[in-house]
Amino acid sequence: MTPTPHTIAVLGGTGAEGSGLALRLAHAGHRVIIGSRDAAKSAQVCAELAALSPGAKLEAAGNRDAAAAAQIAILTVPHSVQQATALDLREQLAGKILIDATVPLVPPKVARVQLPEGGSAVAALQKLLGESVRVVAAFQNVSAHHLRDLTHSVDCDVLVCGDDIPARETVIGLVRDVGLRGVHAGPIANAAAAEALTSVLIAINIRYKVPGTGIRITGLPD
Length: 222
Fold this sequence. Notes:
It contains eight helices and eight strands; from the N terminus they run βαβαβαβααβαββαβα.
């Protein structure tokens, strides 16, 4: 169990990635609020996750209420609605850490790197939201395939990028709580590398017919 529980909103938390992270964080002892535009779906997913981890602190809410109640928020929506979702919640997110897991995939060619103008979708969001929201990029390269299976160890490092170093430190701790290793990967502009890697990993998954490859950073001290 985490020694420092937080109240965490997972915005867009009914999808595979969001719900998997919500489950792992709640199982680690955090209070997790699953935010969604669809209240019924949020409640349904919350009930499903609670059955997987009895006693976990899981709640359902709309995105706005979830963001307002949380100390930390995680954005797990598609790139097409990333900016609109976050901008709509700017008031509720002010003064808080926003972990953005956005990957700018362009269907149907999701196995091809297609970064937006300016390089990084997450860096662009930090610019839009301004300094009042401390945006940190993380979890872009973690496959959702095994996250909801608490018996399965997810073999992957997490690149953590952000201009606010204390915020990055906090996110590194949350990554550890999920059961992964977080790696300081520099300023928010470097999130472009993590975003691009997702398409590379998808291409590898397709070529080798596996469900969820990840990355490992070698040479670091234990």
